[in-house]
Amino acid sequence: MIVGVINTLFGYSLFSLLILLSFRYEIAALISTVCGVLFNFKTIGIIVFQNKNNYLIFKFIVVYIIIYLLQILLLKQLVAYKINIFVAGALILPPLALVSYTLNKIFVFPKYQ
């Protein structure tokens, strides 16, 4: 749980900073996702699933491509309803964290439960 909170804070903080710097939300989400992959792979793999196999990074990237696409879809919907981008980003954190954990548990680290 702590790892998830740290990873989420890292990603959302970077996303928010990029929005403040006038990046479009799609680009801010992409950059924060790419940085998140690099940051999260080790923390999730080692701490959550007790796995140091660096070859799993490719499956991990696939999971985060899915998360990025879901993030953009959800942000687009919320922005269309005139929800502030910072609020929208915060609202989608819990469901995306749940989807991320589930996909990592099933697809990336299935035998390390």
Task: Using brief descriptors, characterize the structure shown.
113 residues; mainly alpha; 80% helix; 0% strand; elongated
Number of helices, counting only DSSP H or I runs of 4 residues or more = 5
SSE order in H/E notation?
Answer: HHHHH
The biggest sheet, with number of strands, parallel, antiparallel or mixed sense and barrel status, is: none
- The backbone outline, from C-alpha atoms, is elongated
Distance between the termini: 14 Å
Tally of distinct domains: 1
What oligomeric state is this?
single chain
- For the residues shown, what is the average pLDDT? 92
Tell me the β content. under 5%
Radius of gyration: 14 Å
- Secondary-structure-based class equals mainly alpha
Can you give the helix content as a percent range?
over 70%
Low-pLDDT regions: none
The counted number of beta strands is 0
Would you write up a description of this structure?
80% of the residues lie in helices and 0% in strands. By secondary structure, it is mostly helical. It has one domain. The chain is elongated. The model has no long low-confidence stretch (mean pLDDT 92).
Summarize the structure.
The protein is mostly helical and 113 residues long. 80% of the residues lie in helices and 0% in strands. It is built from five helices and no strands.
SSE topology sketch:
Layout: H1 2-20, H2 25-48, H3 57-80, H4 85-91, H5 93-108
Helix pairs in contact: 1-2, 1-4, 2-3, 3-5
